[in-house]
Amino acid sequence: QVQLVESGGGLVQAGGSLRLSCAGSGRTFSTYTMGWFRQAPRKEREFVAAITRSGTNTYYADSVKGRVTMSRDNANNKVYLQMNSLKPEDTAVYYCAAGSFSSAPSNYDYWGQGTQVTVSS
């Protein structure tokens, strides 16, 4: 089992940057693909990015491609989401998740509690 805790959210102006972190517990952390998802009010949870177990491959949603970089540090059980050139439409609660390499939330078994990102115009 993996427990996940996100941090790093906050309020930022459009064009600004944030770095989200997700700390995982458990010796099996490195055996999972990790993903970032987000959910805005009255919208469904949507895929943002995913990274393979070794960190070799990443996959991004078209809406964030070129502005977001996902990375992981298996030695310290952490994943990161560097977000640049933020837009008001990036405002959402951001969740990290552990599971299988996919953009579908249903393929992820473990979820953090989320961290709020608010981008002002």
User: Spans of 5+ residues with little confidence (pLDDT < 50)?
Assistant: none
Number of helices: 0
| Helicity, as a percent range | under 10%
Quaternary structure: single chain
- Total number of strands: 11
- CA radius of gyration is 13 Å
**Which band does the percent of strand residues land in?**
over 45%
- Strand and helix order: EEEEEEEEEEE
Residue-averaged pLDDT, rounded? 96
Distance between the termini: 40 Å
Walkthrough of the structure:
With 121 residues, the protein is an all-beta fold. The protein contains no helices and 11 strands. The chain has strands at 3-7, 10-13, 18-25, 33-39, 46-51, 58-60, 68-73, 78-83, 92-99, 108-111, 115-120. Strands 2, 4, 5, 6, 9, 10 and 11 form a 7-stranded mixed β-sheet that branches. The chain has a 4-stranded antiparallel β-sheet with strand order 1-3-8-7, with no helix packed on it. Strand 9 and strand 10 (108-111) form a beta hairpin. The N and C termini lie far apart (40 Å). The mean pLDDT is 96.
